[in-house]
């Protein structure tokens, strides 16, 4: 068992880490840290609103017993050398300061954007760009770290990159146009703040989201050689919106392929990739990485987001697109708080352990 800590453990993403690490076969959570307001309290008490006493626990599962009485530490009191791995669920500004301190001695897996665009930092999705894990070793030389920082992609990028991977490998890609319909949980969980804005509404702008997706998809699907990633040479354009859905990001995707591709051929490649993906033996790996629905009314967030505990990307309405010479289009659904967040981070940790990087 590897000893791990979770930083930012009381927030929405931190809570997902707590659930994902419950009874894990390979990782033992031995310490949690959060803000000074929570420090010194038992974990379950730190979750309570100080004025109302209401438990601010956002997961559908109950607070796991193993963590209820664990005392929350200050971030500054964490001794990273005591751990094999540290998971962080921080805002990017905080991550920029805190994560390098930990990485001096210990590997860090992060949900923040702080280091995603650094040249020696891969944005990893297990089974999609596993070869880029070798770039983690370069951080030790470049930054004088014994550990590393391995960030997840933006949760909106995750399902897109997973579904584009088999298309790129078989047919090549010239252009990608995507519109997202993103769940409320992606905006955080502050009680009551967003409810009046989003009810009976669609918010057509999410700050910095489109730029993140456009950069990250090309980096994830780029070529790795000589300790450098050359971004994929296709173009990406996207529009990101917020919709009144609790969990699960839906995306409409238009792809101009380099070679002619029929929808049935694309479906075949997606399912072949799903069957042969390299992560099958990892504890958190889903039975299917991608499912492709023939029913034109799927995927739907309420029905499909929990497939294989939220770790499967669901695809539907796969069909020809007439705006491109070689065009296909489809709808995807990816769980932003599971595969796109903490549980995806745990899956990445499993991959790194399996490759003996941890």
UniProtKB/TrEMBL annotation:
* GO biological process entries: diaminopimelate biosynthetic process; lysine biosynthetic process via diaminopimelate; methionine biosynthetic process; threonine biosynthetic process
What keywords sit in the KW lines? Amino-acid biosynthesis, Diaminopimelate biosynthesis, Lysine biosynthesis, Methionine biosynthesis, NADP, Oxidoreductase, Threonine biosynthesis
Q: What class of enzyme is it?
A: oxidoreductase
| EC number(s) from the headed UniProt entry | 1.2.1.11
Top-level taxon of origin? Archaea
Q: Which InterPro entries does this one have?
A: ASADH-related (IPR051823), Asp-semialdehyde_DH_CS (IPR000319), Asp_semi-ald_DH_pep-lack (IPR005676), NAD(P)-bd_dom_sf (IPR036291), Semialdehyde_DH_NAD-bd (IPR000534), Semialdhyde_DH_dimer_dom (IPR012280)
Q: Name one GO molecular function term.
A: aspartate-semialdehyde dehydrogenase activity
Database matches in PROSITE patterns = ASD
Entry-linked Pfam families: Semialdhyde_dh (PF01118), Semialdhyde_dhC (PF02774)
Keyword Membrane present in the record's keywords: the answer is no
- Coiled coil spans: none
- What pathway is this protein said to act in by its record? Amino-acid biosynthesis; L-methionine biosynthesis via de novo pathway; L-homoserine from L-aspartate: step 2/3; Amino-acid biosynthesis; L-threonine biosynthesis; L-threonine from L-aspartate: step 2/5
**Domain Semialdehyde dehydrogenase NAD-binding intervals:** 3-136
- Spell out the catalytic residues: 155, 249
What family is it from? Answer: Belongs to the aspartate-semialdehyde dehydrogenase family.
Name of this protein: aspartate-semialdehyde dehydrogenase
């Amino acid at each position: 068992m590897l000893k791990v800590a979770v930083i930012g453990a009381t927030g929405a993403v931190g809570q997902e880490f707590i659930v994902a690490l419950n009874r894990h076969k390979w990782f033992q959570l031995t310490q949690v840290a959060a803000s000074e307001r929570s420090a010194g309290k038992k974990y379950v008490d730190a979750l309570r609103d100080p004025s109302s006493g209401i438990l601010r626990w956002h997961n559908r599962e109950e607070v796991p017993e193993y963590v209820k009485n664990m005392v929350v530490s200050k971030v500054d009191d964490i001794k990273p050398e005591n751990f094999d791995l540290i998971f962080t669920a921080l805002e990017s500004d905080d991550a920029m300061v805190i994560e390098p301190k930990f990485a001096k001695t210990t590997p860090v897996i992060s949900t923040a954007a702080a280091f995603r665009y650094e040249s020696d930092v891969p944005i990893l999705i297990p089974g999609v760009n596993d070869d880029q894990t070798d770039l983690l070793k370069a951080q030790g030389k470049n930054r004088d770290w014994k550990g590393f920082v391995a960030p997840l992609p933006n949760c909106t990028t995750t399902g897109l990159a997973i579904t584009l991977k088999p298309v790129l490998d078989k047919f090549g890609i010239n252009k990608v146009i995507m519109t997202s319909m993103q769940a409320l949980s992606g905006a955080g969980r502050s009680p009551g703040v967003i409810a009046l804005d989003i009810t009976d509404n669609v918010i057509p702008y999410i700050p910095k989201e489109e730029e993140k997706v456009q950069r990250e998809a090309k980096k994830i699907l780029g070529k790795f050689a000589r300790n450098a990633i050359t971004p994929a040479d296709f173009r990406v354009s996207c529009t990101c919106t917020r919709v009144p859905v609790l969990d699960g990001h839906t995306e409409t995707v238009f792809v101009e392929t380099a070679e002619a591709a029929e929808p049935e051929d694309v479906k075949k490649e997606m399912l072949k990739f799903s069957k042969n993906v390299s992560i099958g033996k990892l504890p958190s790996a889903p039975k299917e990485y991608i499912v492709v629905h023939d029913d034109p009314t799927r995927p739907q967030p309420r029905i499909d987001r929990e497939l294989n505990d939220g770790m499967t990307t669901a695809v539907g309405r796969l069909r020809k697109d007439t705006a491109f010479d070689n065009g296909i289009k489809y709808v995807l659904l990816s769980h932003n708080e599971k595969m796109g967040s903490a549980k995806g981070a745990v899956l990445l940790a499993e991959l790194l352990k399996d490759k003996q990087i941890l």
